[in-house]
Amino acid sequence: MKNRDTALIICTPVAKNGLSSGASLRTQFLLEMLEEHNLEVKILSTAELDKVKNEKFRVILITSYANAFRGNWAKKRSEFLWFDPYDSWTAHRYSMVPHTFWRNFWGFLWDFFWTAVFPKCDLITFISAKDAKKHRFFSNKGKTLILPIRFTLPSIKSHSKSSLVFMGDGTYLPNVLCLPKLNQIAEQLKMQIKVIGRGYDHQISRFSNLEFMGYVNSSDIFQKNDIHISPSDVGSGIKTKTALPLALGIKVVTSRISANGLKNCENMKVAESIDDYCKAIRDFSLSDNDYENKDTQDIYKVNNLPEVKKILENWLAERPNSPEEVESK
Questions:
Q1: Under CATH, what is the fold of the domain 2-148+302-328?
Q2: pLDDT for res 294
């Protein structure tokens, strides 16, 4: 095997699709962090790893618990192994069982086995403290830190009319499960809610109070006077649909699950019942407050980004300088 001063990110196929999904934004953030440390980075899905089967890397970063089965493969080919499960697979699987039992039952067993046998590594990162707490057993596998996403904020426009907005990919079941609640909110308010994202073709005829916009460029999604709604009651992690408008100073009404990992901000209201959502939306609509953009790192309850960077800096500063030194270790 040849050793090069490179890093490899192993991600899911969704993280490479070029859309602004949580997985792709996470991967882009991790890519930028590694590049900041002067590493040449490759990004491959698990199905593409045969392309580098004869290579070794300074750093291999495995993203998503779905790729945990590649842990031992990566351990043999890296000097520094970093596992980024992102969120809690147990919280996600448990919340989805009532909706797709057998798929998540077998998925639960798969995830349990491969995370249990995951090798010891140099660094483990979760997106929130709550997700990390669900996996305390990882504490004996490596140093665990909290690493939320650092966003590059898109442009924001202003217009006189306020719209209600929900954004999310329609191929992701937790987003589809939000549609009945959104439809009830829109019906009670006697307003339309814009649903931004692909994959809702089979849902359009079912919800008369929702306006399905399809794919929209990120530069056109965010309007200063809009109110974003994030009513998901399933899943785990930090929701991009909540965090991104929050950082842009846009008003957000969200469920408790969708507010996970985020500080209480003046432009965010947490709701539970349909009446709660409607009241919060009405209150925001009557408010003349103009909320300022925030540094994306300031919206999180816990953020260990400086510590993660320091670990990388210290390790890279101490690493062997040649392949010969590596082979002699």
A1: Rossmann fold (3.40.50)
A2: 75
